[in-house]
Amino acid sequence: MIHSNANFLKENNAKHIFHPMAHPKDSLDNPPAIITGGKGVRIIDAEGNETIDAVGGLWNVNLGYSCDVIKEAISQQLNTLPYYSTFRGTSNDAVIQLSYDLAEFFNEDGLSRTFFTSGGSDSVETALRLSRQYHKIRGDHGRVKFLSLKKGYHGTHIGGASVNGNANFRTAYEPLLPGCYHMPAPYTYRNPFNENDPQKLAKLCVDAIEAEIVFQGASTIAAFIMEPILGAGGVIPPHKSFMPMVRKICDKYGILLIADEVITAYGRTGAWSGSRLWGIQPDFMCTAKAITNGYFPFGAVMIHSNVAKIFEEDKTGAAAIGHGYTYSGHPVGAAAAIACLKETQRLNIVENADARGTELYQGALTLMKKHELIGDIRGGHGLMVAIELVSDRDNKTPAESATALNIQQAAYKAGVMVRASGNNIILSPPLVLTKDDVSQIIHALDIALTNNG
Length: 453
Ligand SMILES: Cc1ncc(COP(=O)(O)O)c(C=O)c1O
Description:
This protein is of the alpha/beta class and about 450 residues long. Helices cover about 40% and strands about 15% of the residues. Strands 4-10-9-8-7-5-6 form a 7-stranded mixed beta sheet, sandwiched between helices. Strands 11, 12, 13, 15 and 16 form a 5-stranded antiparallel beta sheet that branches. Strands 1-2-3-14 form a 4-stranded mixed beta sheet. Strand 1 (about 35-40) and strand 2 (about 40-45) form a beta hairpin. Helix 13 (about 350-370) packs parallel to helix 15 (about 435-450). Bound molecules: pyridoxal-5'-phosphate. Pyridoxal-5'-phosphate (PLP) binds near residues 124, 153, 232, 262 and 288.
């Protein structure tokens, strides 16, 4: 039996839980919204307030909270085979079907093999490790370093945190992996080059990457990891030339390209993958989150055929994979993903993500005209938008994080859950959002910004 009394839940929440990404004392002093129900694109809290979830769970509930086909697939699989491992010697029918479906889904991206995981951080760790192993199989033992972008987010395992581009997720946990180097992000609003033209900035960043490769020595670098559109770092869409240029540089120097698509895969950007949005094929693609619509912790690292070939043709034993998770290929997660993928395609969800994404972005730009507190709006590719708050527009002084939190709370009171992250408000609603839902999100933010401006 789960207690339903709101006061009991608030009083007990932080007494026994250490929340991710929160100070334990703050969690004790300021009880969070306690979500007890979900319906369509809306969530309901312990006090009965119903709000539009403009966070989409955590960038993962793409099809909303009422996707019955996934719920039924989970329930059926639980009754048939609730668990079996895929470590050497055993497999299961659900995961075999899913790997087949994923190979079809990602065919255009050149990705034909899957390594299954329990989530995004696991997927990142897997891609980092397999990319080092790829070079070792080929006899290139010196290629062990990783390059990534500042502002990039790659989860919180030690490998992922090491390539992470934000000090908040690093400093307390240092020392991290040696041999990880962070390049300037194509972030037009703030960058070391003082360049606000996206195309020129993309070239400057790529030049910096190439200079670093030459400085480190290409023969020491295993992989470059990046999000096609940086998400948690504040929704930073690069110019369309950026990722193709990175692909070219990686090819030139024999460096593998890992696309971290934990947010962008399965339709969020208005394309089926971020790599496809930019017209490139990565060597590895990390996915998780929306693969099960958030209903089951699950992830999949997609592997390019060229990389798979190196592993599969090895005769020395060097390609034996010494990596894996108890829940790699979990049959219940696999069943959820099979149903989710089918439903995502049946709805052709990319169309709605694109159309509603444009409306949301345009709506946010309208807010910027009215509210001095907004310094920058980023989006324009599907349903991922950031509103960057500043206390002084001319000097681009970042607003206090308390301002973003106040706006989050005011928007919640006005009927919409948004996410405050540093001085950004991040919007990543379910992709099944309606036009009317978009208007409600913008309206709630307008009220919140007016009250806190
Ligand atoms: C791009 C990216 N990579 C990795 C992760 C980590 O995923 P998880 O939280 O499922 O471990 C996230 C999570 O937000 C992400 O956005």
